[in-house]
């Protein structure tokens, strides 16, 4: 299939994809992002895109998965933020922003104590990427990624144990 026929197919389906996106969000920018990300992921399997008997069902599933992945990344990021940065939400009544800044600085120092490769690996994990995505990006086995992240979390927990809420 040539590029012009693929472009025509994409333009025909864009309106319906925007309708699908409105089921997930009301934000017009986020809708557009969902449509674009769906088309990018579908483009990776261009042969399936053209020959798929239930093309719109397939694209809907891709869009749903993109939305779920974004939701998980956002949730994981907010959980980390709540756990390590917003310590004032604990049972103590404390609004000392200077102390929170010291805590944030300690977390940053602990992160900077990691090697460049481990810092990059852990940063990708904190940004919400899945193990297989990190493994592909860093060209290493997924099991190695899981092990390193586990070990890095334990190391950072030891370094920051003074802030534990137990």
Automatic annotation (TrEMBL):
- Alphabetically, which GO biological process terms does the record hold? DNA-templated transcription initiation
- Give the family, as the similarity comment puts it: Belongs to the sigma-70 factor family. ECF subfamily.
Per its UniProt record, what NCBIfam families does this chain match?
A: sigma70-ECF
Entry keyword annotation includes Transcription regulation: yes
Alphabetical list of InterPro entries matching this protein: RNA_pol_sigma-70-like, RNA_pol_sigma-70_dom, RNA_pol_sigma70_r2, RNA_pol_sigma70_r4_t2, RNA_pol_sigma_r2, RNA_pol_sigma_r3/r4-like, WH-like_DNA-bd_sf
Q: Name one Pfam family in it.
A: Sigma70_r2
Name the species this protein comes from. Answer: Sphingobacterium thalpophilum
Give start-end of the signal peptide.
Answer: none
| RNA polymerase sigma factor 70 region 4 type domain boundaries | 106-156
Q: What is this protein called?
A: RNA polymerase sigma factor
């Amino acid at each position: 299939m040539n590029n012009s026929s693929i472009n025509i197919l994409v333009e025909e389906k864009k309106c319906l994809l925007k309708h699908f996106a409105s089921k997930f969000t009301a934000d017009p920018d986020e809708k557009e992002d969902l449509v674009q990300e769906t088309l990018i992921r579908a483009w990776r399997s261009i042969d399936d895109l053209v020959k798929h008997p239930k093309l719109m069902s397939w694209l809907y599933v891709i869009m749903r998965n993109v939305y779920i992945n974004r939701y998980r990344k956002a949730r994981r990021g907010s959980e980390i933020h709540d756990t390590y940065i917003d310590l004032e939400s604990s049972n103590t009544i404390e609004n000392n922003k200077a102390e929170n800044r010291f805590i944030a600085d300690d977390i940053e120092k602990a992160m900077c104590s990691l090697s460049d490769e481990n810092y990059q690996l852990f940063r990708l994990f904190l940004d919400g990427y899945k193990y297989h995505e990190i493994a592909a990006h860093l060209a290493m086995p997924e099991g190695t990624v899981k092990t390193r992240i586990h070990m890095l979390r334990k190391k950072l927990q030891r370094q920051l144990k003074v802030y534990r809420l137990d």
